[in-house]
Structures are given as C-alpha cells and as structure tokens.
Amino acid sequence: MASHDKHDDDDVKIFQKKDFDKGKTPEKKEGARWKNSNVWSSLEFALSGIVTAFQRERNMRKHALTSLIVVVFGLIFKISEIEWLFLLLSVFLVITAELFNSAIENVVDLASDYNFHMRAKRAKDMAAGAVLFISGFALIVGLIIFLPKIWSLIFG
User: Fold this and answer.
1) Is this model's pTM higher than 0.85 or not?
2) Domain ranges for the chain
3) What is the pLDDT of residues 25-51, one digit of tens each?
4) Nearest-angstrom CA–CA distance, 149 and 78
5) Which run of H or of E encompasses 126?
6) pLDDT (tens digit, 9 = 90+) per residue, 57-87?
7) Which of 11, 88, 95, 111 has its CA 20 to 30 A from that of 80?
8) Which residues are part of a known binding site for substrate?
C-alpha cells in the first residue's frame, strides 16, 4: 500500500542504555534540529517536508506534473479569475491531501514496523481514499472549466 520509492534507516536514531545514565536525556547535536526555535525554523521544517514528499513520493510527482499541465491549459485557454480560483483550489487541495496521505503512511509504517495489521491497512486506505475523493473534485472542476472551451475550439 505504501507509495514510498525508497526506505532509508539513516533517519532513525538509536540510543543506548548508557545514553540515559543518571536519569539524563541524551543530548546530541541532531536533537536540537527537532525544535522550532522561531518562525524561520518552522518554515524550514515545513519546506523540508514538502521537498521530502516530492523526492520520495511518486504520486506527489504525478500530482505536480498534472498540476503543471492544467495551469498551462489555463493559460492557453485564458480562463477567468473565478475559474483560476477553482482550478488553483483544486490543485492545492490535491497536493495537500497527498502530503497528509504520505505523512499518515509514514507514521503507520513506523508504528506497524512494516508488518501487516488490519488497522494499519484501514488507516492507509482511508488516507488514500481522501486523496481519491479530492482528486474527483479536481476532475469535476477541470471538466467544468475546460470541456466547454475544448468543445467550442473543436466545434465552434
């Protein structure tokens, strides 16, 4: 079910029992990067998440390519401001849903340790269903905007 292109274990930190000697929490330089000390670090984490999704998630790249194509069609057909609003809303909703789906898949895979569990399957299926659902909305918006324009181009 996972749409991950590759699985890396290099992002997993393993602490040894001795790291917790005398009741102390281990302090490592890497740990500091997990804290949002200001708005800029929060923005950096968010952008890192988006970049990671594009690098690791095949479906995210497919959605991005489709989004680019519909934006080009919007420019070619000179769609109205309202049509742009609906088109861009659709694009952003699909990308956002895919980001949530990818995040849910990663958390479920981590929690289930890549073993099959019916609850894990259901969670991943529901997240994928959300992407499908919002993609249906995007398809309907695209048809409403572009079909009349294509029809008039061919038969007008």
Assistant:
1) no
2) 58-155
3) 666 555 555 566 788 888 998 999 999
4) 10
5) helix 118-155
6) 999 999 999 999 999 999 999 999 999 999 9
7) 95
8) 98
**What is the Cα–Cα distance from 49 to 33, expressed in whole angstroms?**
14
Helix (H) or strand (E) holding 53: helix 39-56
- Can 83 be counted among the known catalytic residues? no
Candidate list 27, 30, 83, 98, residue with the active-site label: 98
> Closest Cα partner for 66 from 74, 28, 80?
74
Q: If you classify domain 58-155 with CATH, what class do you get?
A: mainly alpha
Structure token pair of residue 49? 């998440």
Residues contributing to the annotated binding site for a divalent metal cation: 57, 105
Q: Which residues are annotated as a binding site for ATP?
A: 57, 105, 124-125
Q: What is the pLDDT of residues 127-147, one digit of tens each?
A: 999 999 999 999 999 999 999
